[in-house]
User: Fold this.
Amino acid sequence: MKDKFTIALAILGFAMSLFLSCADNPALEYPSMDYFFGSSSSSSVPNSNSKVSSSSVALSSSTKSSDSAELSSSSDFTKPSSSSEYDVSSSAESSDSAEPSSSSEENSSSSCSINLDDLCGCFTEGTERLHYGRNKPQFCDPRDGKKYVYVEIDGQTWMAENLNLNASGSKCKEDNCTKYGRLYNWDAAKANCPRGWHLPSFDNLLKLVDFAGGIDYAGAKLKATSGWKDNVNGTDDYGFSALPGGYNTHVGDDVGQWWTSTSVNNNSVYNWKMEYKDGVIYSASSKDNQYSVRCLRDE
Assistant:
């Protein structure tokens, strides 16, 4: 009787020890009471479906016959390592810091692509700018990045400001290129309109002047509303906004003169000018003179 009592105490002590170990280690499951006192089933450790597969608990071969129970060497009951199934911090962190997908990269890069050979960058053709009291569309000259406003008048699309490309055969009026543009000799004028634009012919000029009221009145309708001598400005009915850019060495604010592409002979070319009066004047002069340039869009 005493032996049975001693064995019971030993088993109870082992059970308490195992209980405390399982409480410290959530990866382990508590063995059933059948494990200690026997049942119709096997008295072995929990089956293979248990979570304690790698560190199972077993009694030594002398468990039921000896006065004490021992843990096998494989049952150290250590806490899960950093690679345990319970440690998910590393995978969660890597998913949170994942790089954007290729589709998101495409969306950001497609917003604007700058070509270093094109000084217009991301400029959008037709973007409007306020110019002499009205909003006008612009285009950009990729050679130097300058933007020019333009207007359509009777089916022809004209630049609404003078060409301002720094080219051989050109110069500025009083160093004020931004307002008046540059003055060009005829060869430079013919060669330097932006791509998609050209120097207008005399016929193009006649069409413009006729639409604006004829030679006696067109000047008043084509001049800008400010900038002319003695306030003899125009009404600028169509947005052409002609300014007194001068000619050659003349730098006054009383005349503007522009080239056409039409030659009179080997030495002379048609040009046209406005003064501080309402009309328009046609003339022919040497190709070496320097006048302003208004380009016309190609059809």
